[in-house]
From TrEMBL:
Organism: Alexandrium monilatum
Domain Protein kinase: start-end pairs: 85-387
GO molecular function: ATP binding; protein kinase activity
Name this polypeptide is given: Casein kinase I
Domain of life: Eukaryota
Database matches in SMART domains: S_TKc
Positions of ATP binding: K115
Keywords, comma-separated and alphabetical: ATP-binding, Nucleotide-binding
Cited InterPro entries: CK1_Ser-Thr_kinase (IPR050235), Kinase-like_dom_sf (IPR011009), Prot_kinase_dom (IPR000719), Protein_kinase_ATP_BS (IPR017441), Tyr_kinase_AS (IPR008266)
One protein family per Pfam: Pkinase
Amino acid sequence: AGEVTAGWAHWMPGVAEQLAELDAWEEVCRAAGASTAGLFKSPQPVTRGVDLDRPHRVLRLAGAKDWENIEFGSAAKRPEQIGDFVIKRAIGKGLGGGAVYLAQHFHTQEKVAVKWPLPAEELGMWTRVQEQLPGCMGLPQLFDSGMHEGEPYAVTQLLGADLTKVIQRFDPWDRLRRWRGVRVLGRMVLRRLEALHSAGIVHCDVSPYNVLLGRPGGGGCEDVVPYIIDFGLARSWPGSGPLGAEHGTAEFASVRAAEGRERRPEDDLEALGWTMVWLLLGDLPWCEWQFEMKVHLELVARIRAAKLRILQEGWWKLRSLEPRWAMLADIPVELSSFMKTSNSLSTRPTPPPDYRLLAALLGGRRGLSAEEAEREDLREFRAHVWPML
């Protein structure tokens, strides 16, 4: 237990301040929707905060506007104070110029995350989530919001590492042990998505970058749970209309999302499926493609075609291909069934997703309420995820 606690200190707020601080290349990967795994295995891997040309290349490949002038890390300018919160440092950054800062309340000294500037639409969606799903487990609390220098800001619960950090801790473990942990994480994220969907909200960008681990209540609890963050692309369902294929994280987006269609709950579920495949295998075959292609929409289309072929023709047909593809043939049958059951490929109106069946495919017990299932998954998290961290 002591070793687990010591190992976890690097990840959690209030224990080590560097919990969520991103190296320059990781910061850019998050912003550009590029794969950190791809950067690790690229011919010229980015080192810690040194090679800044490589992150800018990622931004260019991702189609970011004015990519040469985007600053990150210690070079980025930051405000001294926003509202009642003293800004400590940047812990994340978006392509639109907005950043996420580690901050501290001027009087109470409570540590929080401050996002500024952010689009008014994103703040509106975040407010809607808080109003319709108050106290929902796994959705960050919105503590405060307002205007700073004429632009909106949001103050939220400070969380820990995203799943791109978690996967590095999974590497030494065998496939069976990893699957036990991945399916627990999958069930918990599925429950958060079900809550959002029940409120008529589709997240539209489920990916490892947008699932963070944190303590319920901001740090007073010893348990750790996954949180879904970033409602910048979230849309109402139904009736929000098409969302361009360039929006979202291409490696994990659904096939329909890559076609620029109106996003549906099923698209979030397929994206969760690809996220679980990535967590289990440690990679996806298309994670390196962004270094081969200069036009982002061409990359999106190429990844879409690969995913569509897998989902339509079957995972087992990949066994005869090169190792990067053949590894997909070995995913558990429950996970491939999850992808099929999400029914994301249908272009016709479909019944609402069967979340109970999807949870059961990931090892969840039937007949439990959301609260009972969460408590059971917390026990499973301690048993199967914590030891790998």
